[in-house]
Structure to design on (766 residues):
C-alpha cells in the first residue's frame, strides 16, 4: 500500500474589487493538506472551486470528502482540524440471527475476513465467508440462518449494519429496515411478502459516506433491471421473479437520459460521459426493441442532443442521434446544476406526447413505457428540489390511477435510475428520486470512467442469445485472447474434411453456411467434422446432411481452359442436433431475413432490396472476414468495390496463376462475386487458404451481418505472413466472395423450407 506524497499548494491570495465597492477574494490554501493523500481543485482557489480529497485504495478522506470555495472567499466546510486518510471500514456483520459470526470484532476493516455459521436446526443461505472490500462493502451475499418451515416468504435476512423490524413472513407481511449509526440505507426500506412467495423490492444495503458501487456492480445490477424492459420479445413464465414479462409494442419504449455537465464534473469527464451515453445507446440498440430517445446534458441550462418528439414524428433516428452525440461540444462554462430543469424538460416532453398531434401517431400515451436515467454529481444548487417534478411524472405515467388497479400495473411503466457520481453525492436528496419496481435504481460511483466499458457487459444478453449478429466485446483482463475472440465472433465454425480445413458461419442453431469448394466431390456427411469452440474446449458435432448450390460446377469452364470455376460457391451444412446457443455460440445475420430487418432497424414494410441498400451504401464498402493463424483468428479488413469501382477491381482476376490467355474476365468473375483487395484508396487485407468458406461480414450498429462467403483469390501471399497480423494485399491482388444477395433462392429453399419437420424454417422477405 503506497501512500501518496502530500501535495502542497502555494496560497496566492487575490481579490477583485467589484462595482459597488464589494471585494471578492480567492480562498486560502492554508490547512488544506490531507495526511496520507492529496487534493484536487476544480478552479484553483477561485470562488466556486471545488476541492476534492483523494486517498489511496482502501482509505477514505476524514473528516471531510470535499470543500467548496464560497463567494466570501472562505471554504465550506472550513478547514479547521487535521484531515487524514482513514482505513475503510465495513458495516457490522454481527446482525446475523440464529448464527455466529467469527471473529467477533468491534470494527471490521478492509481486508478483514469473516465466517458465518448457523445454530443447529437452522439452514444457511448466502455466503459463509465474506471479506471487507475496498469500497466499504462485504463480498458475497448476506448470510441468512433460517428454519423456513411454514412461512410464505423466505426469511429476507438482515444486511450488515442494518436493523430489521418484522419477523413474520406471511402474505402481505411487511419488514422494514434502517441502518445503524452513521450509515445510510440504499435500496428498499420496506419489503412486502407477496402472494408468489417473493419479497417486493430488493435487498437494501447500509452505506457509509465513502461506500461506493464499483462500475462492475453498478452495470451488473442495472442490467438486471433494464434487461427485463428491453427483452420483452415474448411473454415468458418467469417463476424466479414471479411475474411474466409482457410484450412491448414496437416503438413504445421511451428512454430519457440526462447527464449533469456542470462545472463540478470536470472537463475530461465530459468526454467520458459522452462515451458512456454512446455505449449505453449502442448496447440498448442491439436489441430489437426500437426505443425513442431523449438525451439532454444539463447544468443551469439544458443542451438537448436528442428530442424524443422527433422520434415520434419520425424526423430523427438512432444513427442521427449517435452522430449528434459524437459532435456535441461542451458549450461555454456552465455553472450550477439544475436537475429540476432537466426533469421538467422530460415532463414537458411527456405532456406533449400525451396531447400532441403527431403525423405518425400509432400508439396512445398509455402504451409508452418510460425509462429515465440520470447521471449527476449529486448537487443541485439551483432550481429547487426535483422531487415535486418526479411526483408529476409519476402521476402522468401512472395515469392518476391506483397502480394496482390496472393490468398490467402502471408502475411497470416508469423507471427512474440515478447514477450519483462523485466523492460526496447528496444521497438524501437523490435517492428519493428513484422510481421503479424490482432491481436497484440508485447507484453511487466514484467517477464515471469505466462505466462505459462495463455497460458493454451490462445488459445481459442471455435472454436474447438467439438473436442474430449479437456479440460481446469484452476487455476482461483475465480472459485469454481466444475466449475474447469467441465472444466477439460467436458464429465462427471450423469445418474439417480429411486434411483440409475451412471456416463456416452459424446461421441458425441447425445450419452452417460455408463454401461449396470446401466439400469436395465424393464427400459423405460422415466425412465432415464440424468444430465449435465453446469458451475453452473444442467440441465436435455430427452432421446429417449438406447442400451444395445446384449451379455450382467447378469444372463448368474446363473447355475454355478455366481449371476451377467458383461461381455459386456456397453450401449449407445441416447439424444432427441443434447447437446449444449461448453468448459464445450464436448465429450471424444473413440478408433478407426478418431478423436482419430488425437488426438493421428497417421498417416492417421494408424489402430485401432495402437491406441491400442499407448494407451496400458505398462503392468502397468496408467489410471484414476472419483469418486464421495457428490457433487464433483475427479480423481482416477489406473494401468491396461496387458500382463504378467494380470493373477495375475484377479485371485483376485474369492475373491469377494458371489463368488461361484470351479469356474474358466475365468468364471467371460473374455478377455473383464481390471483389476486394488492392491498396488504393484503402489498403485491404487478403485471405489465406484456411479462410475459405468464412463469412464476409459487415458490422452494422453493433450487429454483425454476413454479406458474402470467402471463395477464391488471385495470389497466395500467406507464406510471407508476419504473425499475428493479417496479410496485406498487393496493388493487384484480389479476393472474390460469393455475394449472398445473389444466392438467396438457394438459401431460402433450404433455410426457409417450411415443407419439412426437421427444423424451424427462417422467414425470408420478398
Ligand atoms: C483487520 O484489519 C486490520 C487493518 O488492516 C488489521 O490491523 C487487523 O489485524 C485485521 N484483523 C484481522 C482479525 O485480520
Ligand atoms: C404460464 O404458466 C401458467 C401456470 O403454470 C400457465 O397456465 C400459462 O399458460 C403459462 N403461460 C405461458 C405463456 O406459458
Ligand atoms: C414489431 O412489429 C412487427 C409487425 O407488427 C412484429 O412482427 C414484431 O414482432 C414486432 N417486434 C417486436 C419486438 O415487438
Ligand atoms: C436517419 O436519418 C438520416 C438523416 O435524416 C438519414 O440520412 C438516414 O438514412 C436515416 N437512417 C435510417 C436507418 O433510417
Ligand atoms: C392534427 O394534424 C392534422 C394535420 O396537420 C390536422 O388535419 C388535424 O386536424 C390535427 N388534429 C388535431 C386534433 O389537432
Ligand atoms: C467417407 O465416408 C464414407 C462412408 O462412411 C467412407 O466409406 C469413407 O472411407 C470416408 N472417407 C474418408 C476419407 O474418411
Ligand atoms: C456422432 O455420431 C457417432 C456415431 O453415430 C456417435 O457415436 C456420437 O455419439 C455422435 N456424437 C454426437 C455429439 O452426437
Ligand atoms: C459441369 O460442367 C461440365 C462442363 O459443362 C459438364 O460436362 C458437367 O456435366 C457439369 N457437371 C454437373 C454436375 O453439372
Ligand atoms: C412439399 O412436400 C410435398 C410432399 O413431399 C410435395 O408434394 C410438395 O410439392 C412440397 N411443396 C413444396 C412447396 O416444396
Amino acid at each position: 500500500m503506497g501512500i501518496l506524497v502530500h501535495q502542497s499548494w502555494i496560497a496566492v491570495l487575490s481579490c477583485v474589487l467589484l462595482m459597488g465597492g464589494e471585494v471578492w477574494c480567492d480562498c486560502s490554501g492554508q490547512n488544506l493538506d490531507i495526511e496520507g493523500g492529496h487534493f484536487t481543485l476544480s478552479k484553483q482557489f477561485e470562488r466556486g472551486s471545488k476541492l476534492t480529497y483523494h486517498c489511496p485504495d482502501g482509505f477514505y478522506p476524514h473528516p471531510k470528502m470535499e470543500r467548496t470555495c464560497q463567494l466570501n472567499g472562505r471554504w465550506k466546510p472550513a478547514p479547521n482540524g487535521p484531515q487524514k486518510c482513514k482505513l475503510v471500514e465495513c458495516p457490522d456483520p454481527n446482525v446475523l440471527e440464529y448464527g455466529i459470526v467469527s471473529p467477533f470484532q468491534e470494527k471490521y476493516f478492509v481486508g478483514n475476513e469473516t465466517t458465518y455459521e448457523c445454530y443447529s436446526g437452522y439452514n444457511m443461505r448466502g455466503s459463509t465467508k465474506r471479506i471487507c472490500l475496498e469500497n466499504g462493502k462485504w463480498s458475497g451475499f448476506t448470510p441468512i440462518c433460517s428454519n423456513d418451515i411454514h412461512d410464505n416468504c423466505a426469511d429476507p435476512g438482515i444486511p450488515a449494519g442494518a436493523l430489521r423490524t418484522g419477523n413474520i413472513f406471511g402474505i402481505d407481511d411487511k419488514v422494514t429496515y434502517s441502518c445503524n449509526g452513521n450509515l445510510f440505507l440504499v435500496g428498499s426500506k420496506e419489503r412486502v411478502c407477496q402472494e408468489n412467495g417473493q419479497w417486493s423490492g430488493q435487498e437494501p444495503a447500509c452505506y457509509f459516506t465513502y461506500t461506493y458501487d464499483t462500475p462492475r456492480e453498478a452495470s451488473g445490477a442495472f442490467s438486471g433491471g433494464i434487461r427485463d424492459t428491453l427483452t420483452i420479445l415474448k411473454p415468458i413464465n418467469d417463476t424466479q421473479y414471479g411475474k411474466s414479462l409482457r410484450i412491448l409494442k414496437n416503438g413504445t419504449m421511451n428512454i430519457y437520459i440526462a447527464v449533469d455537465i456542470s462545472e463540478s464534473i470536470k472537463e475530461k469527464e465530459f468526454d467520458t460521459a459522452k462515451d458512456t451515453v454512446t455505449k449505453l445507446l449502442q448496447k440498448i440498440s442491439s436489441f430489437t426493441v426500437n426505443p425513442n430517445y431523449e438525451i439532454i446534458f444539463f447544468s443551469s441550462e439544458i443542451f438537448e442532443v436528442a428530442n424524443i418528439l422527433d422520434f415520434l414524428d419520425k424526423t430523427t433516428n438512432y444513427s442521427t442521434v449517435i452522430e449528434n452525440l459524437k459532435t456535441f461540444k461542451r458549450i461555454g462554462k456552465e455553472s450550477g446544476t439544475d436537475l429540476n430543469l432537466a426533469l421538467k424538460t422530460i415532463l414537458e416532453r411527456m405532456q406533449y406526447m400525451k396531447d400532441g398531434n403527431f403525423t405518425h401517431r400509432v400508439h396512445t400515451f398509455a402504451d409508452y413505457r418510460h425509462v429515465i436515467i440520470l447521471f449527476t454529481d449529486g448537487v443541485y444548487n439551483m432550481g429547487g428540489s426535483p422531487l415535486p417534478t418526479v411526483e408529476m411524472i409519476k402521476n402522468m405515467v401512472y395515469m392518476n390511477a391506483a397502480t394496482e388497479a390496472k393490468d398490467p400495473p402502471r408502475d411497470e411503466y416508469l423507471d427512474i435510475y440515478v447514477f450519483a457520481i462523485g466523492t460526496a453525492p447528496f444521497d438524501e436528496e437523490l435517492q428519493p428520486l428513484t422510481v421503479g419496481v424490482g432491481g436497484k435504481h440508485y447507484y453511487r460511483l466514484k467517477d464515471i470512467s469505466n462505466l462505459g466499458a462495463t455497460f458493454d457487459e451490462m445488459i445481459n444478453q442471455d435472454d436474447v442469445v438467439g438473436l442474430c449478429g449479437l456479440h460481446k466485446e469484452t476487455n476482461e483482463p483475465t480472459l485469454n485472447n481466444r475466449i475474447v475472440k469467441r465472444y466477439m465472433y460467436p458464429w465462427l465454425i471450423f469445418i474439417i474434411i480429411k486434411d483440409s480445413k475451412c471456416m463456416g458461419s452459424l446461421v441458425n442453431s441447425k445450419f452452417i453456411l460455408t463454401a461449396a469448394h470446401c466439400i469436395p466431390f465424393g464427400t459423405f456427411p460422415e466425412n465432415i467434422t464440424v468444430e465449435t469452440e465453446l469458451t475453452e474446449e473444442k467440441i465436435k458435432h455430427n452432421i446429417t446432411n449438406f447442400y451444395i448450390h445446384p449451379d455450382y460446377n467447378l469444372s463448368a469452364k474446363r473447355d475454355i481452359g478455366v481449371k476451377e470455376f467458383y461461381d455459386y460457391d456456397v453450401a449449407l451444412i445441416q447439424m444432427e442436433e441443434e447447437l446449444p446457443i449461448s453468448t459464445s455460440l450464436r448465429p450471424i445475420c444473413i440478408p433478407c431475413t426478418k431478423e436482419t430487418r430488425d437488426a438493421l432497424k428497417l421498417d416492417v414494410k421494408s424489402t430485401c432490396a432495402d437491406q441491400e441498400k442499407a448494407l451496400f451504401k458505398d462503392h468502397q464498402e468496408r467489410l471484414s472476414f476472419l483469418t486464421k493463424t495457428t490457433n487464433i483468428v483475427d479480423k481482416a479488413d477489406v473494401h468491396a468495390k461496387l458500382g463504378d469501382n467494380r470493373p477495375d477491381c475484377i479485371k485483376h482476376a485474369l492475373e491469377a496463376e494458371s489463368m488461361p490467355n484470351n479469356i474474358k474476365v466475365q468468364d471467371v468473375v460473374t455478377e455473383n462475386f464481390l471483389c476486394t483487395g488492392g491498396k488504393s484508396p484503402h489498403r485491404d487485407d487478403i485471405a489465406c487458404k484456411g479462410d475459405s468458406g468464412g463469412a464476409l461480414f459487415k458490422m452494422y450498429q453493433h450487429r454483425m451481418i454476413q454479406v458474402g462467403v470467402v471463395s477464391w483469390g488471385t495470389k497466395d501471399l500467406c507464406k510471407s505472413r508476419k504473425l499475428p497480423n493479417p496479410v496485406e494485399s498487393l496493388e493487384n491482388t484480389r479476393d472474390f466472395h460469393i455475394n449472398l444477395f445473389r444466392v438467396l433462392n438457394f438459401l431460402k429453399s433450404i433455410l426457409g423450407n417450411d415443407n419439412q419437420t426437421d427444423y424451424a424454417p427462417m422467414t425470408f422477405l420478398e
Summary: Residues 87, 103, 109, 111-112 surround 2-acetamido-2-deoxy-beta-D-glucopyranose (ligand 1) (CB under 6 Å). The first strand starts at residue 15 and ends at 17. The first helix runs from residue 215 to 230.
